Amino acid sequence: MLTTRRRNLSPLKTRRVQQSTPQQKNEFSSLEEAMVDDQAQIKEEARLIKAFEDWEKQRSRAVAKHYKLSQLEQSRAKEERRLERKLDNMVIQEQMEWERTQLELVEQAQRQARGNQRRLLRDEHARTLEIDRRREGAAKITRHFFDRLAVLDPEPALEMFTAKRDELVRCCLELMRDFADDNEIEAFQAELQESLQREVNTLRCRQRAFQQEQRVQTHKKQVHQDMRRAQYQEIQTHLQAKRDTRTTDRVVREEIDKQHDLQDQRYRAMQARKKQKDLDVHTKLLEQMRLKQAEKAVVSLRIEGKTSPVLRTPYWSDEAQEAQLDTFVRSSPIVQAPESPVIRGKVRCQWYD
């Protein structure tokens, strides 16, 4: 495209060169040289691009060929593996058939063995149940015998146990002798002897505990008697102390009553004196009032325009004013106001009340 452009511009350039100045001609020549160099560079780049495109095509063809070859190799290997798996499956199937046959044989033998074992176990279980039933019967006999001993006192229980022990062992062994073997009978006999020995130890412990309890009861009775005796002595001592205290309190109360009676007598005497004194004062006042009434009826005097009093001046009035009344004569001495007596009442005593 650049070549065409240059070719199209050549006549214009030629005309311009022909019409231009020498300086412009030099510039045009340098420009033309530069354009020639650019065209050469463009051709070189086009050649390189074409060479790269050719190499790219060759590489893509080689890659496609290699891919096809690899695809063929993979399909061939896949087929070989399929054939190998088929052969392996056939071998495995034959092996499994053989193993299944062997397992069936082994399982059949195991079923027979389990059946035999179950029969043996059933027989053994039935025998064990029978032995357990007989042992339970023997245990019931011994338990009944032990229960009979438990309700007795320790000493009679020991005597009865010593007398019946051999008979109990014989009766229990008769239950096991017809069914169990010698080893089981020996084990049962050893167990029976052990239980009997435990019962003997229990009875002896009961005897010792009973004796200890008897001693404790005796000691308790003695202690109780001593305690009751000490309590009785303490009660008697306390009663005697109470009697002495009551006697002392009675004497003290009598003395206090005497003091109170004496105070009451003094108070009554004082009240009588006060009453008599009040009566005397009242009598005197009545007498004075009577005299004043009589004087008021017969005397009517006026001194310096003042009315002379007829009645006497009360005891609370100012007697200094009586001196101004020349005609007033007191008919009787002045009665003093009675004093309030000191009343000494009974003093309340909580203990005495």
UniProtKB/TrEMBL annotation:
<feature type="region of interest" description="Disordered">
    <location>
        <begin position="1"/>
        <end position="30"/>
    </location>
</feature>
<feature type="compositionally biased region" description="Polar residues">
    <location>
        <begin position="17"/>
        <end position="29"/>
    </location>
</feature>
<feature type="compositionally biased region" description="Basic residues">
    <location>
        <begin position="1"/>
        <end position="16"/>
    </location>
</feature>
<protein>
    <recommendedName>
        <fullName>Trichohyalin-plectin-homology domain-containing protein</fullName>
    </recommendedName>
</protein>
